[in-house]
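Notes, p. 3: input format for complexes.
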Amino acid sequence: MEVNPILVLALLGLLACTPWFACSDQRLLVPMTLVRNASATGAYCLDGSLPAYHLDRGFGAGARSWLLQFEGGGWCNDLESCMDRAKSRRGSTDYMSKVEVFSGILSNNASLNPDFYNWNRVKLRYCDGASFAGDSKFSNGVKHLANFTFTVSTNAPGQRIWKAIILDLLPKGLGRAEKALLSGCSAGGLATFLHCDNFTSYLPRNADVKCLSDAGFFLDIQDISLNSSIRTFYEDLISLQGVEQNLDKNCTSSGYLPEQCFFPQYALKYIQTPFFVLNSAYDVYQFHHILVPPTADPHGKWNRCKLDPEACSPDEINILQGFRKDMLAVLREFLEYSRTGGLFINSCFAHCQSESQDTWFAVDSPRMHNKTIAEAVGDWYFGRRVSKEIDCAYPCDSTCHNLIGQAPNNIQHAIRTLE
Ligand SMILES: *[C@@H]1O[C@H](CO)[C@@H](O)[C@H](O)[C@H]1NC(C)=O
Ligand SMILES: *[C@@H]1O[C@H](CO)[C@@H](O)[C@H](O)[C@H]1NC(C)=O
Ligand SMILES: *[C@@H]1O[C@H](CO)[C@@H](O)[C@H](O)[C@H]1NC(C)=O
Ligand SMILES: *[C@@H]1O[C@H](CO)[C@@H](O)[C@H](O)[C@H]1NC(C)=O
Ligand SMILES: *[C@@H]1O[C@H](CO)[C@@H](O)[C@H](O)[C@H]1NC(C)=O
Ligand SMILES: *[C@@H]1O[C@H](CO)[C@@H](O)[C@H](O)[C@H]1NC(C)=O
Ligand SMILES: *[C@@H]1O[C@H](CO)[C@@H](O)[C@H](O)[C@H]1NC(C)=O
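Output follows (419 residues plus 2-acetamido-2-deoxy-beta-D-glucopyranose):
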């Protein structure tokens, strides 16, 4: 089984220049850098291609500040889905766009990205299928099990890719960073939980290092058929890709199962680096794939609700409200006691709000207490004020950019095509 690639990125790709998504005239295009030395440590993508990143240099006061962003894009949890992935842009840099548009938190324009525009900004391409946390040794073991011709091309050493990219960036200035922020969305947002403290360990001791997860707070919940399908999925992923050894040792030695420590709700309290959790309380990806996956709704009773919250029945709305309550419940301790943490949990039907300009920082972008996401994250990073915002429940927020519902037909069509 393959959890579908993030719909948002695909949607943005499809709709980059419709009237609904403002299309900037001066798009910043940043070329890909292959990590040639990765072969020295066997840090290959699923298909054996070299891993890659895109770097746009900082300038002025930001020259010694670094923002690293993990690309997202689902996961693969069995041989078949990983093999399929290896033949696509999700598992091979050969099939990826060689130039990326840097917008939102990656923009270099002060009026579009007020706090990070002049930093060194890096997008880490995702080609391993396990949130940069697997190790190939385990995949080799699978060869025997599956009785499959298992070549180097289906290894999944995400953790090695992470390290290879860091080692490549250190001499380029990351090793002398004064400020740093590790971010990412979706599977990349999950990767920030998994790698946050490891990131800190590579940077100078006196550097100001923090981490931000966008739409990576995947909940350990039962789906509507009471199946713990996401936990089963992660269990398979962890054993296939050899993730266990790379999970937080303090978490796994505290009586949690490895698959639990893959969930941010258990891992978060062991992370020592200051952390910001940005998430929608009705995250569309989690709604469609974790709360109501197709296996839990074989007759498609939820189809209308999945396309438009206004079409949901009262029972369906109750279930969605329950999902929000579950998310807030597991964040409560962090909300109340974390002195260094930040939160922005808005009540939108969204997924990934830091990478696109219209949700990160724009005249009509989502707000809480009149603050945009860019302002909330900046306030937290620079310690300007406590930045912990929790929205009131749906449908109270009128600033949302929902991916379903009021979205024009072409977006709804794109969602249907993707699922
Ligand atoms: C490449 O990797 C090898 C082995 O880890 C190391 O000795 C060498 O310094 C690296 N070269 C560069 C340019 O990073
Ligand atoms: C920065 O963005 C603003 C607002 O979109 C735009 O007016 C301006 O031309 C941009 N500046 C540069 C240098 O691209
Ligand atoms: C498993 O692999 C062995 C050795 O390559 C082969 O003889 C056997 O037919 C395979 N079994 C299946 C079920 O593919
Ligand atoms: C960080 O991760 C890399 C790659 O797995 C590992 O080699 C290194 O020891 C880790 N550093 C710390 C401090 O855990
Ligand atoms: C439960 O979830 C797993 C993992 O997604 C799936 O393979 C299985 O078919 C589901 N079982 C039922 C009864 O829906
Ligand atoms: C575990 O916790 C101890 C004490 O808080 C800390 O010193 C250590 O770095 C942590 N180890 C990991 C792997 O996070
Ligand atoms: C909200 O913020 C905008 C600028 O971001 C400002 O112009 C406006 O006055 C603020 N509104 C309120 C009610 O504070």
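The longest helix spans residues 314-337.
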